[in-house]
Every structure is written in structure tokens, then in C-alpha cells.
Amino acid sequence: MSTNTAPAPGPDAALTDTGRIRVHKVDGMSRGQNILRYVVLFLGALLFLFPFYYMVIGSLQTKPDSTVAGAFPNPGNLTLENYADINGRINLLQGLVNSGIFAGGVILCTVVFGVLVGYALAQLQWRGRGVTFALALLVQVVPFQLLMIPLYVMIARDYGLADNYLGMILPFAINSTAVIIFRQYFLQIPKELFDAARIDGAGELRILRRIALPLVRPALLTVVLLTFIGPWNEFLWPFLITKEASLQPLAVSLANYLSNVAATAANPFGAILAGACVLAAPAVVLFILFQRHFVSSNIGSGVKG
Amino acid sequence: MSAPTVSSENVAPNPAATPSRPGGGGPRRNRRRQWLGKNPFGLVLSAPYLIFVLLVFAYPLVFAFYMSFHDYFFAAPGAVVDRPFVGLANFQEVLSDPAIIRSFGNVGIFLLINVPLTVVLSLVLATALNKALRFRTFLRVAFYVPYVTASVAVVGVWIFLFSGNGLVNQILGPLAPDPAWLINEQWAMPTIAIFVTWKGLGFFILLYLAALQNVSDELYEAAATDGAGKVRMFFSVTVPGVRPATVLVLLLATVTGANLFTEPYLLTGGGGPNGASSSPVLMMYQRGIEQGAPDIAAAIGVILVIGVLILAFIQRKLAGGDDS
Fold first, then answer.
1. Could you tell me if B193 and B106 are in contact, meaning their C-beta atoms sit under 8 angstroms apart?
2. CATH number of domain containing A268
């Protein structure tokens, strides 16, 4: 998104003196206040970004240097050794693949359920529609920690899905955010469009495939990106359900390394931070590339319902 | 919600023309319609989702309450064992366990720090960002990056930053707390609260940014005409204008706080020192899965959710967000 910078003097210059003062006041563009605004914003940005910068620097240091000087890159203390080190302890590629399968499965279920149910809720009249929508909202509201223990008993013990991708994905498959976003999206599309297709003799499946799905494409990317963050960063559930290292998502294997074996590495902090960079990179890169799709209104409607 | 009558009449006369439903005869179809609504296909589309909701939501929800009132223990799959109803015994055990009580107290400390800090900082930063014209994209990205990153990844940096001779203590010098932050009984929970605030702030800034778009410019203009300064405007126009968002932020921050697990598990090595940073969900994990008492864990979960509901109710009363 290209932000339009202020047309500095522009049209305002033509205004009378009094008019211009009023505009200044309303937009809050008095010089001192504007400087204060940017001081606050950049101070905030520094606090938000510094740990990430420090993560990258720390992952490249031969020896951990926690002095103030260590926050600046020192050519004599730089190495890629930590990445090799962490990769020797936990298989980074396998972890990334597992995280990818976990996130991919969740995204697939979320999008399929989201589109189908969102469309049915917004555009079709059927018995049970109100109950379905209420259920979708309830799923959003009831906290996961209440379900954690029963889900563990069911999925790991009764269904035998511990150390299984399906077991990881199942509890996250019914993410209602997508249902709510897609419903909102389909509500904006005039009903007449679908009714016209019905009059022309199109079957419901055909309407869904030829009209509803193409229309919803713009919302798809937002939902996919929003859904991706959840499972990619999730720790608690996959941690409970996977004990076998070869099946653990990267977040889980890195956390296990962090809490158990870090003490044995030559440079434990370097190795942890190297793993952290690998875990953080996909989400951060995707977010920066597609940041304009993280629009406030989408997320707001997803949360508020 | 009532169906638009025009369209229903439009479709009704020629149902047989629908090629995908050759068998739809007149009267039978009408009766089915009465039962299932105008477009029963909606139910077909929603059925897989509803089955999933029953399977991984409704059933576990009932199961959680069942467990908390029974002497539930792990048994081999398929084995028939007796799990007698024990009334409130599990709850009694939870409420008389000082470690669990302490974990609830810890979350209280956490919420007292995290929730006000989150509301104030995200509203101030969102207000500053809302009218900023330059570097907008950069600033937005900077604020949201912690939110999109895994806790597990940033926890590593925070341990490094807040360790005994970490960068934070190096800068503070003699002011640094003596057992370092995360191994200090007084500071462990506040450090976790600050970590979580930092990590989640981007999301709440986003919510406030959306809410600020709904505060009408005319209110600001009117306040400016009345000679209100910037600070005055913030308190008498912006703050009341975003009240519905504040109610939402309060609720979400409280729920997130009650869900606290990853941070005490990793930052303070499982709720240390001496349980000073344990959380109820951490206790659920330790009691339920490590020590094999899922009934106790389920009881903790039920108490926690009731606590969150009470807090949410109080917040709603205080913030008065009837229109959210």
C-alpha cells in the first residue's frame, strides 16, 4: 500500500489566514505536536524491532556477547556455526516441514469450512441456520484451556492420534474466524445475483463453483494469512500431542531444545537464536510481503463477529 | 431473518427446471421445503463443519464438566473402568492446593500489569499512528511483527536480554535487580506480563486503529472550536469514541492472560522460581498430564473459565460497552 504523503502546502495555501489556522488545529499538524508524535512512534518501533535485530545478531555471534558493544555486529565474532549447530540437534528442515503440514492442514480445513458455511449462512435459507451461526460464535468464545484436557484424552488416548498430523490439526480445524469473515463477505453480495442464476436453471453446486467461489477470491488471501499465524506459532497443543521428535513442528522441537538440552551446546544462546530466526522468518517474511492484506477492518470483523 | 418474498416466488414455479435435481416433484418438494427451509443445500454445505464442531468442540466441552465431577483417571483405551461421581471433591482438592491457589494469584498479578498497560499503550500508539502520514507502512509493520512471530522464537531473545549479565542488566548497571529478572520471585511475573504485552500490542493497535476510523471528525472540529487542546481532545473525544473497542480489548487481553502457558513454561522454566510465575494452565498441564490427574486439571479449567466470565462481566459493567 502506497501511503499518500501529505500535499504539504498545496491547496491549503490558497486559504485565508484564519481558515488555515483552523485546518492546522483540526489535523493536529502543529510542528511541536507532530515531532512529538513521531518521537513516540519511532521509540515504539525501536522497542518492537530491537529484539528481532538482537535475535539475528545473537544468532551470528561465535561467542555470546551481552555487553552493549555486543549489540553491534563485530566482524571478528561473526559465524554461521550456530545454524549448523542447531540443525545438528533438531532437524530444522523436518521441523519446518512438520510446521508446514500442520499449518497447511489447518488452513485447508479453515478455508473449506469457512467458504461453505459462510456462503450457506449469508445466502441460503435453511433450517438450523441460526443455530449454526450461534455455534460458530460460541466456538470463538469458549477458551481452549477448558477443552485441552478432554481433547487430549479423546485424541491421544481414545482415538490413538498422538504423534499424528491429524491429531495436531483436528482441534484447530473449526476456526470460526474464517466462517465469520466469509459470511460477512458474502452478505455484501446481492442475493439477486444468486437468485438470477437459479432462475436460469443453475444447480446449487454450480452456483457455488461458478459464482460464489470466484467472488470470494479477494478475501481468500487475508483468511489464509490470518489462519497461518495460529498453527505456525502454536506451541501448547502440538507439544501435548507429539512426543516423537520427527513429527514435532519447529516451535515444539525448538522449545524442547530450549528447556532441556540447551546447556550442552557450545554456544547455547547462539544456537537457540539461530533456531528462533528460522522459526520466525517464514511468518515475518509472509507478513511483510502481504502486509496490506492485514487490514484492520478484516481482522476487526473476524474478532467481533 | 425473513426471506425476501419476491425471490422466493421467482424460484418456486420452476423447480423441475433445475438440472441437478431431477427427482424434485411438486408436493413432496414443498413439504421438504417446509421442514428444511428454502435452500436445504445450506445444510449440506454446513454439515461437515457441524460434525467437526460436535466432535472437537461440543463433546469435549461436556466431557470437561463430566470429568471435573468424576474420579477420572487415564486407563488403557477400551478398558472398562469405574469412574465414580465424586461431586465437588475435585474442586475441593483444587481450592485447598496452595500451589494452584498461587497460580491463580499469579495470573491476577499478570492481569493487573498486562491489561492496563495494553489498553493505554495500544490506544496511545494507535492514536499517534492514525494521523501519521509519513513512514506509515514501516511503523505498522514494526508494531505488528512481534504479534505474528511465534512466542517460542522471541522467548529465546528475552531470556538472553534479561539474563543475569544480559543486555538489560548491563544497561541498568547498579539498578539491575539482584537475582536477575526471570529468576527473581518479585520480578518473574511482571517480566512475563511485560513480555506478553509487548508481543500482543500490535494486534490491539490494529483493533484501535479500526475503531478510530469510526470517531467522527466533526467531534474533533467541535472540540477544536471550543478551544480544547490535544490532551483534552484525547480524553474527551477519542477515549469515549473508542469505548466499544476498549471493551473488546479488555476482554481479549483478559482471555489471553488466562490462557498463559508458553511464557512461564519457557521463560521461567516451568513457573519458577518457587512457583512465583506458574499459571493455571501450566498447573493443568502438570497435574493433568504429567501427574495423570485429568479430573483435577478439568476442575482447574472450569474454575478458570468461571473466573474469566466474572472478570469479563465486571469489565463490561465498568467500561459500559452496551453498544459493542
1. no
2. 1.10.3720.10
Q: Quick check: is A185 in a domain?
A: yes
Cell of A285: 517474511
Cβ-based contacts of A28 with chain B (< 8 Å): 131, 230
Among B124, B141, B161, select the one facing A288 at the smallest CB separation: B141
> Residue A22 is part of which domain span?
10-59
Contact B82, A160 (CB under 8 A): no
Number of domain units in chain A: 2
Taking the complete model, does pTM exceed 0.90, yes or no? no
pLDDT in tens, B190-236: 999 999 999 999 989 988 988 898 888 888 888 888 888 888 888 88
CA distance B186 to chain A (A): 22
Instruction: Indicate if A125 and A18 belong to the same structural domain.
Output: no
- Is the CB of residue A269 less than 8 Å away from at least one CB of chain B? yes
Would the CB atoms of B21 and A203 count as touching at under 8 Å? yes
Q: What is the ipTM of this complex?
A: 0.81
Q: What is the CATH number of domain B92-319?
A: 1.10.3720.10
Flag whether residue B224 sits within 8 Å of chain A, measured between CB atoms. Answer: yes
C-alpha distances out from residue A170 to A175, A251, B24, Å: 10, 18, 37
* Residues A27 and A92 placed together within one structural domain of the fold: no
- In this complex, which of B43, B145, B302 lies closest to A48 when CB atoms are compared? B145
With beta carbons less than 8 A apart as the criterion, state whether B126 and A28 touch. Answer: no
